[in-house]
Design goal:
Blueprint lengths: L3 E5 L12 H12 L5 E4 L11 H13 L7 E4 L5 H10 L7 E5 L8 H14 L4 E5 L1 H4 L5 H10 L3 E6 L4 H10 L5 E4 L5 H7 L3 E4 L6 H12 L3 H17 L7 H9 L16 H10 L2
Parallel strand pairs: 1-2, 1-8, 2-3, 3-4, 4-5, 5-6, 6-7
Helix pairs in contact: 3-4, 4-6, 6-7, 8-9, 9-10
Length: about 290
């Protein structure tokens, strides 16, 4: 179910800071008609840290109700307080969802034993299969290959890892030694092609918010083993991908999507829009 292109969907806002439901519906339509395979709702790209619990439930329900193409949905529910994450699992209405994405604990900098204990606790109570998420650039702590493999072997409700360490030694260790049925998913758009070449099952993407067809076509070709055909699509998007992260994400991807008329270029603090100079560069890079 979670092979191919998943999208870490943005959350659009109005000028007054409220959720822009019209643009959210536009975004869902843009993605579901763009050839992607599944949607991740309220991941980092969705500015989840700035939404209240009530708003998060509203977004989860709205996306499920407007998922007219019936794509698999993944709910982003994670944090650095294990008990609070468990309460989130218990109190969130996940009707219409097929899995949960749960980021590794941030700020606390737990040991590898602490990371394992966190995911073991989630595994034991999660109402849906869990995709763990290793993104040390944001959390400050890498989930090592050894720890991830230990989780994969001992926590059968944890079905995959979104791996965004960027460390190919680690990535190859995960793919080589993972148990059957456990997937390694790229968490970095720019290295999705080589990760799939190594054996990853796909990507949870930021760039596909703006360019779902182009990126999902590239991923599909990679999964078929046709890297010769995939390479031109990969290189067509590399400069765009890089530009989306120069001044932070989701600032970059929303800049593109606002130029496309899909959403407004509005954020909740502390996220802000890209600079005028970067916006001009983005306009030049747009396909």
């Amino acid at each position: 179910m979670f092979k191919g292109t998943g999208v870490a969907m943005i959350t659009p806002f109005n000028a007054d800071g409220s959720i822009d439901w019209v643009s959210l519906k536009n975004t869902i339509h843009h993605l579901t008609t763009g050839g992607i395979n599944y949607i991740v709702v309220l991941g980092t790209t969705g500015e989840t840290a700035t939404l209240s619990k009530e708003e998060k439930q509203q977004v989860f329900s709205f996306v499920a109700e407007n998922n007219t193409n019936n794509l698999p949905l993944v709910a982003g529910i994670g944090g650095n307080n294990t008990q609070d994450v468990i309460e989130g699992y218990n109190k969130t209405n996940l009707e219409g969802y097929s899995a949960i994405l749960s980021v590794s604990p941030y700020y606390n900098k737990p040991s590898q034993n602490g990371l394992f204990a966190h995911y073991k606790a989630l595994n034991d109570v999660a109402p849906l299969p869990v995709i763990m998420y290793n993104v040390p650039g944001r959390t400050g702590m890498n989930v090592s290959a050894e720890t991830t493999l230990k989780i994969a072997e001992n926590c059968k409700n944890i079905i995959a890892t979104k791996e965004a360490s960027g460390n190919f030694d680690q990535i190859m260790q995960l793919i080589k030694y993972k148990p059957t049925g456990f997937n390694v998913i790229s968490g970095d758009d720019g290295i999705t092609l080589p990760m799939i070449a190594c054996g990853a099952s796909g990507v949870i993407s930021v760039v596909a918010n703006a360019y779902p067809k182009q990126f999902s076509d590239m991923v599909s070709l990679c999964l078929k083993g046709d890297f010769t055909a995939a390479q031109p699509l990969h290189y067509k998007l590399t400069d765009i991908i890089n530009s989306m992260f120069v001044e932070g994400s989701p600032s970059g991807v929303k800049a593109y999507m606002s130029q496309m008329g899909i959403c407004k270029n509005i954020f909740r603090l502390p996220v802000v829009s890209v600079s005028d100079a970067m916006m001009e560069n983005i306009k030049k890079l747009m396909l």
